[in-house]
Write a structure and sequence with these properties.
With 194 residues, the chain is mainly beta. It contains three helices and eight strands.
Length: 194
């Protein structure tokens, strides 16, 4: 699965340029999340299709995010920062900053509010991740970060969401220190909107 980051950012800029709507004063624009997950041994495409085995490596992540732009009633733009601690077969800290595009309109939202999101940014690992070094010929402390997410909340408690996402570090096809491939994790968590 090849993702062209240039086109991703062109779409984000076009949405921004076409005009958006402001948020209501009482609308929740901030969110904090707590995630946990396990690294996979597959590439991004295999991980997305559940065609993987799991490494003996786990992570716990905390995030802070804020909606900063809305286009129509269905697309939100957000920024997010993450602090991630890795355990077991790799043991280091990871810090990520990213922009997110979120689709929020689904026909079943009155029963189960749903959103899907994709985001990209930069990832910094405090040391070279052992799983990345094991599965690929090279890695780097600084790589591209990608995430793909689905979130669910009940209309009666919209401030809380259950979230699942793919957590991906990559060399962006060699753009970063000639790194091809890196690591993927399936993570699950809880988000509070305020």
């Amino acid at each position: 699965m090849k993702i062209n980051l240039k086109w991703f950012w062109i779409v984000v800029l076009l949405i921004t340029a076409l005009g958006g709507t402001s948020y209501a004063a009482d609308e929740r624009q901030w969110a904090v999340s707590l995630f946990t997950g396990r690294l996979t041994d597959g590439d991004l495409g295999d991980s997305a299709m559940f065609n993987v085995s799991f490494e003996d490596a786990f992570l716990v992540a905390g995030t802070l995010s804020k909606k900063y732009y809305r286009y129509s009633d269905s697309i939100d733009l957000e920024w997010e920062v993450q602090a991630v601690k890795h355990f077991k077969d790799q043991n280091h800290w990871e810090f990520n900053g990213l922009n997110v595009v979120r689709w929020t309109a689904f026909p079943w939202d009155r029963y189960l509010e749903t959103s899907v999101a994709a985001g990209t940014g930069l990832s910094f690992a405090s040391s070279r991740p052992e799983i990345e070094s094991k599965n690929h010929t090279d890695t780097s402390n600084i790589l591209v970060y990608l995430m793909f997410e689905v979130a669910f909340s009940l209309p009666t408690v919209p401030e809380w969401s259950l979230v699942t996402r793919i957590h991906h570090r990559s060399g962006a096809y060699g753009l970063f220190n000639d790194v091809h491939g890196a690591s993927n994790a399936w993570i699950f968590g809880l988000r509070y909107h305020f």
